[in-house]
Structure prediction request, 251 residues.
Amino acid sequence: MRCKLIAGNWKMNGSVECIRGLLEEIRKGAVTIPSVELAVFPPFVYLGLVEQQLSGTAISWGTQNISEYASGPYTGEVAGQMLRDFNCQYAIVGHSERRALYGESDQIVARKFAAALELGIKPILCVGETLEEREEGVTERVIERQIRAVLDLGGIGSFSDAVIAYEPVWAIGTGKTATSEQAQEVHSFIRSKLAVHDMMFPADQVRILYGGSMKPANARELLAMPDVDGGLIGGASLEAKEFLAIAKACG
Ligand code: PEP
Prediction:
């Protein structure tokens, strides 16, 4: 049985004051939804505040990125060991904004995935196709390529302690959402690729989240799909009411 995970990617938003308020509301709401795991992903500079506010609660936290390197002359980067200092449980890798705006290739993403795992931080690997790729009919090929880079570097075992997020690029921050059938089709494809790689690998235990304009109004239908194990939420995670309403839609 896969426990649903609702993860809030705050991107480059927030302030000390608004994060305090947001977390207070999320903490209160979370106790009413004990069967769903909640996690938040603040900008790096707020990790100390988030750790302080969430330690001792059931809510997890993590980062939106992680360096592929352990330390050294990498100005502006943040290493996995530093995330460990703030007890991060998760790190998002390969978000489409990092791939598109900062030139992160499949291979860089795979190395970041491996860097997180090595320190006991669960990577959340984002995969997804652009609108042109969907229209060209190459969605599965793109996703297979993105997953293969991780498999080639770390093998199938690296997915035992990881999460995958299917995020169609055309649905991120656009208000367009994949239909529940479109999401299910890709999620089941991803699971089948993990299973086919090694028949012994328990692919049915890997959580696959959907991300892309998930809101309270569409969450129930998406989350009811058999292979949708939660959501990676951008815009709606900045409002405690919306974030909690999405989590409640898991039930
Ligand atoms: C995201 O950036 O991961 C995301 C899903 O954003 P939004 O929910 O705003 O589309």
Notes: Residues 9, 167, 172-173, 211-214, 232-236 surround phosphoenolpyruvate (CB under 6 Å).
